[in-house]
Amino acid sequence: MRRDQLEHAIRTACQIIEQPEIIIVGSQAILGTYDETQLPPAATMSIEVDVLPVVDDNDEAARLADLIEGIAGEFSSFEELHGFSIDGVDLTTAVLPAGWRERLVKVENANTAAPSGAPRFTGWCLDKEDLCVAKLCALREKDINFVGSLLNAGLANPTVIANRLSTVPAEHAAAAKRALNWITSRR
Length: 187
What we know:
The protein is an alpha/beta fold and 187 residues long. Helices cover 43% and strands 11% of the residues. The protein has one domain. A 5-stranded mixed β-sheet has the order 3-2-1-5-4. It is globular, with a radius of gyration of 16 Å.
């Protein structure tokens, strides 16, 4: 995936749910910090953009996520036309460390504006280390490959990731411990 595709996804998701901003929580959030030319191939392989509506109520987040999924999700005409899909997610999708909202990376430019130029939509992407925490708490092979590629390229800080793993919600302590074991084994 490329940065311009992420920007297109931001604009489209905001238009679908009629909201001015969304949060990108999946691997493509890395494109908020780096463009595809700076990233290893394993970091941009996904053709899905995981979008979290900016709401405080998880039922509302799930409703809006379903709306996104129905219009631009996997196997949609949107995916067929553009070569990537937009997956709506809710507040329970990603395990995130304390303070993650304060570290979001803003993506807002001419490419995130409606065709008329207004309104301009905003995509908030997870900070690179918070993204790595979320991926490592999931600890699937694709997540390990993603984080490993960022670490190997020197694009994420393993010490920061390890420190943030200790701040995930208590109900995810076992996942955080597995993730911490993985990251310390790489040192």
